[in-house]
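[Automated response] Your request has been received and processed.

Submitted sequence:
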Amino acid sequence: MNLEQAHALRSQLFVPALSERFVDKAHERGADAVIVDLEDAIAPDAKADARRALPEVVRRIAAHGMPVFVRVNNDPALLDEDLAAALATPLAGVFLPKAEDPAQVRAVAERTRQAGTGLVLLLETPPAVLRAEALCACSDETIGVVFGSEDYANALGVVPTMESMHYAAHAVALAARAHGRAAWGVVGSLAEFGDLALLGRMARAARHAGFTGALAIHPTQVPVFNEAFGASDQELSDAAAIVATFERALAEGRGAVQHQGRMLDKPIVDRARALMARAGRGD
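Generated structure:
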């Protein structure tokens, strides 16, 4: 998967590698991509079984036209074999959890480069957030960066609320976007699926911080993320009107023009064009 495709992903759904029920229905949930999980969703004594099952699981999901990622374990006893298994399959990319060390990122990135697939970094700890800029900059193979609010909150000994996660989420999004990477996450708790209104507020806050999508751990979260990180008909209509008004002004020799009570200039029009392009409505 390339950077442009990564930026277009509004939602990605985690699927445990050993859950037949979730694997079978993964393509029906409405997510833009699927992440087959070898890490948190797999018990320690089942890691080898999950790794062996991986090629067939990826094949089954990809057969429905879904982009498929794999989250490996960032554990010295597991990482090498997980990467070998993952990179032997046709993937959109590999998710590297607990990314903290630029040297490790570069080493993993070289393996993904040789396999012709992308790399996604999960920044989930205080050291990772403090090094976000360096981690986002250290490899051109990185297509996406994730803010892992749950592990980050645990490391700080706090509850992952919108308030407590505000600084770290903004720092990760800023670093990712400064280096052209897609940014995925919410400002708050990713574990929230009981209160979808709250989840929507966290997702919209993430979009306003610069995130381009989010990762779903439950199917009910997918439509919330698709809406929060997508473009509504009204937003697209407004964007089209902005572009049309500005183009008429340019044709008349003007570089700025009033539109619905505000001045339009190039930055505003560029933002409208980007929204339309993201929704496939561009020129």
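Summary generated for your ticket: The radius of gyration is 20 Å. The first strand starts at residue 11 and ends at 16.
If you did not submit this request, please reply to this message.
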